[in-house]
Design a protein that fits this description.
With 329 residues, the protein is mainly beta. Helix content is 8%, strand content 42%. The chain has one domain: Distorted Sandwich (Beta-galactosidase, Chain A, domain 5), CATH 2.70.98. It has an eight-stranded antiparallel beta sheet with strand order 6-7-8-9-20-16-15-14, covered by helices on one side.
Length: 329
């Protein structure tokens, strides 16, 4: 953790100048249905694990440096200025739309698959600190009849300073109740729905055409906007201005992850998902299960991702510096 913060403080990018060299202290407040995460006494996010009407734990809101809300408000809050498509796009979350024939992505029947629930069980650890913190939680993936399809253990680490707030997600999936098949689907993976101002286009149409947004997408290979969909890359950067302030979100795939680098289910309307499972869709292959991943009974598999929420502008060199630090920890 200290190495990370030392790196952040040492990083100098012309448009992302450090205002404050002090690393953020992280503290938690556990409520009945969520865990509140604060940086230096200010809200960063809430881990909503028992929010009414939700089918999986999600982080909302995400408040970046300077108080900027970085993800879409809908469906947690209504806003007349936002698109209201895909109510299952819930800020920042992990989900998969075909695990053993059930959808853990959609909140209603999808392609003939009934929706399951990712159910929070307990916190194993909650560690606060002056230079960061983390929690460890467990979840059951439950079929509609309540039977357990699989389980996971997730460690979520928080760190940063006045210019960048970082969320590291490590999830270990356990085939604890029989064989598990993560089937080939485009709607799957570690996901975020970015703030409306960061969308490249909007779902609302004007004169039959999608309304232009003010955001941008670029991946580690230099591919931009709509063309990032289905491409393999080490990271994707969503950036622009929110409430008139230049900000960005970098989502990173870790080299230790299976099938690295991941495909990206990255939509120009604001959804960005690290998805290794959708090979059939992304490469337009005949085999409908080309990207399926099997997890035999009793085995486990671990994935790591990083989200960097930064203020100011950041070019590819700055993002590569963040990525290099993530891979060398």
């Amino acid at each position: 953790m200290k190495r990370l913060l030392t790196f952040l403080l040492a990083l100098t990018v012309t448009a992302v100048a450090a205002e404050d060299s002090k690393s953020a202290a992280v503290s938690f407040t556990e409520l009945e249905d969520r865990l509140r995460v604060e940086f230096d006494g200010e809200l960063f996010t809430e881990y909503r694990f028992n929010d009414e009407g939700r089918f999986f734990p999600a982080f909302y809101p995400i408040v970046g440096p300077g108080g900027t809300k970085m993800t879409r408000r809908f469906p947690f809050e209504e806003s007349k200025d936002e698109d209201t498509d895909h109510p299952h796009h819930q800020s920042l979350w992990f989900a998969h739309s075909d695990v053993n024939g059930f959808t853990f992505w959609a909140t209603k029947e999808y392609k003939g698959r009934k929706p399951g629930y990712t159910v929070h069980q307990k916190f194993l650890e909650k560690v606060e600190g002056e230079d960061g913190g983390y929690f460890v939680a467990t979840n059951n993936y439950e079929a509609p009849d309540g039977s357990i399809v699989m389980t996971d253990t997730r460690k979520v680490e928080f760190s940063g300073n006045a210019d960048a707030r970082i969320l590291d997600m490590t999830i270990t999936f356990h085939a604890s109740n029989g064989d598990v098949s993560f089937n080939d689907e485009k709607d799957a993976g570690m996901a975020i729905r970015v703030a409306s101002d960061l969308q490249v286009v909007h779902r609302v149409k004007v004169n039959g055409k999608a309304k232009e947004g003010t955001g941008n997408l670029v991946n580690s290979e230099g591919i931009k906007d709509r063309e990032t969909w289905g491409k393999k890359a080490r990271w994707v950067h969503s950036y622009g201005k929110v409430d008139g302030k230049p900000v960005g979100i970098v989502i990173m795939d870790h080299p230790s992850n299976p099938r690295y680098p991941t495909y990206w289910h990255s939509r120009d309307y604001g959804l960005i998902t690290a998805n290794i499972y959708g090979k059939h869709f992304f490469e337009k292959l005949e085999d409908p299960q080309a990207g399926a991943m099997k997890l035999p009974n009793g085995e486990s598999r671990t994935f790591r991702w990083r989200f960097v929420f930064h203020k100011g502008e950041a070019d590819n060199d700055a993002v590569e510096a963040y990525f290099k630090q993530f891979t060398e920890e």
